[in-house]
């Protein structure tokens, strides 16, 4: 088996009909063949299926393994790419289609910073999945062809920095090989302090080489898109292409499935003065903490306002009510100060100012991972960002009126220690809704775990409505009329 | 102890300051890196805050003279410097939205004393004195050497923020061109203090190997070496952070051995100094963990405490985005009247924020020297205590300009 595939690979070199010898591409050369308008469009649409699915995986916070599985099956369906071992004319067509689709989408997505950012993220993810899936040999060939800017660290330099290398990569052994690259080509490794830095050079262990490749792919694509954007005004004159390109970018935007966007309000007609009561009855701890801080300090810092403000918006607070709520909460400020410093931001988050973007509320994932709270901030996730003692005190003071007791704490704290913050939050939900027949393991219905603060609030409010309407919500989430 | 009475700068003072003292030419050279106006200056956003607090964005200028003229006309309380865009900011309305994006910008840092409010005992909030400036001094030394040695940047300008903090502007070509993602990575690399105000342990930077914490990453080890002395001088002696109950209770929260904590809680009922308490803690650890091999977790805890109390607290958001605006050097702080003067990092410990000249003081110096002058910016400045600070900026700008000249000559040769 091994022998035969090797013989086939060697054959590729002399197989003059096949133009595309590498399965992985940095897309540094556009296809030069003539192309029909129909092929132009189908190549792009097929690729768009894959990219949209990648985006929606991100929106749903799917773990990378799941994302990989989904993407691979989408690729097989729409943009298959056989390995080098298959030497067929079909393989060459596949590769041509892959490259054509990529270049058409560049034209469609280079027009705004937002589209460019999303396209780069999805394409880089696709590349990454294919790279991880490639054979050792395919990777090696690709790295040789890519003209990457790295140099191997020689033994004398390695021994000179031995202690630093050891501290930066504590699980590496003495045999580990290192590559030296500009730190700007491995920002993700720098950020995590997984490399030794000296004079702007990062010393990257060879097993992290893929990081360099991914970053290089991303950087080159970003630059290429900027160039395309500059060249595009001339291209726009081709009136046959314009509607197709416009359609493609529309398709990408529509394909993005965000469950907690702005349209899905939990409750209509929530007024500013109702927020306090709702906070005590229905809010998850992160929002309750922000609410309590706001009430105590009559102020919240930027990220706190953002996290809480978007949550309230999706909860159903109209812009007028939101302005009323924040104005009242910031009681130490004059109208003038409030209007100058805060009003614009609130209107902005409702898409009424600036880019007029419809900002969705932050998910648990975003709250946990982005914008880490500084020393005097109160945003974030209390399960993660409070110290154990403060967390327990806060849990008791917030939720004991709803039935949480000291006896519940050890279980919750175990979850926190295991870094299962969603699970801890879900458990608190179950405990505080026990009087409404929520039992351990029910979650917010059908055993579902909380992944978004608005999901918590909506489930809690739905339970209350159901009780008021005389219906009973079964553990599996079905509503039964009594 | 405030040395000069606080004088809020009046519009008249400000106008005279812009006309006679503000170093527009030096600021131009520093932003532009050469004598002939380039995109680094002409495509650069300047924003003004007017006397009535109206905020004007997207101004830009073709020359230093035009910059000065407009500033004198608007007579702002202060102005801020933004990024270099793909087009002139003042043409923003007429270019395609996609064609107006930030491309270059100095890498900037902001350290503000309020982030040390949980630690310092001498002042709080907006106040600052020579004593708490020690925290800034420690921060400057750590950041300055980290950025020079690890990232290889050479053109660093430290500037007093006019009240209770310090700014850093880095003008190396590579630093100017960093993307927002790269800026974020660099800042996160340098950020050690994390966790909200409800989190006791704010230092969690050790890699976890086989379930236990490993040694510090090399960059933070280097910072720690620089911080051991400031911890002793500042935390233990000057600020005496662990004398009050509040302070030592916070310290004990960071000790991962409940037996030691209980012992010390009993012992520390008297009014012992921080120095003594720190010695007690070290003695207890040695007694409880006689062998060095088992002591590692406690050694780590001690090192992390030193970092938590002295490592630079960076306002990360300021540094992460190219389009963040930051107050220009030599502006006047509207509350204190003090000038945002450059600071030599080598002499950071001698710097006293209370001795920084105020706008009122400078104009009095000018009047005392010669009541009526030509009004020429440069010669006026020579007669005030602003002079050494402007010279510092000039020297810094010359360094940047010589790089451009050297690169140009090198390019000519290869051609
Ligand atoms: Zn002080």
From TrEMBL, chain A:
Give the matching Gene3D superfamilies: 1.20.930.80
Q: Which GO terms describe its cellular component?
A: alpha DNA polymerase:primase complex
Q: Which GO terms describe its biological process?
A: DNA replication initiation; DNA replication, synthesis of primer
How is the cofactor bound, as the UniProt entry phrases it?
Answer: Binds 1 [4Fe-4S] cluster.
Record: residues binding [4Fe-4S] cluster = 286, 364, 381, 425
The cofactors it requires, by name, are: [4Fe-4S] cluster
Q: Which UniProt keywords apply?
A: 4Fe-4S, DNA replication, DNA-binding, Iron, Iron-sulfur, Metal-binding, Primosome
Q: Does the keyword 4Fe-4S apply?
A: yes
Name the family the entry cites.
Belongs to the eukaryotic-type primase large subunit family.
Return the protein name.
DNA primase large subunit
UniProtKB/TrEMBL annotation, chain B:
CDD domains membership: AE_Prim_S
Q: Which domain of life is it from?
A: Eukaryota
Q: Which GO terms fall under biological process for this protein?
A: DNA replication, synthesis of primer
Q: Which GO terms describe its cellular component?
A: alpha DNA polymerase:primase complex
Signal peptide as annotated in the record: none
User: Which EC number applies?
Assistant: 2.7.7.-
In alphabetical order, the GO MF annotations are: DNA-directed RNA polymerase activity; metal ion binding
Determine if Cytoplasm is one of this entry's keywords. no
- Could you list this entry's UniProt keywords, alphabetically sorted: DNA replication, DNA-directed RNA polymerase, Metal-binding, Nucleotidyltransferase, Primosome, Transcription, Transferase, Zinc
Question: What family is reported?
Answer: Belongs to the eukaryotic-type primase small subunit family.
What is the recorded name of this protein? DNA primase
Q: From which source organism is this entry?
A: Russula ochroleuca
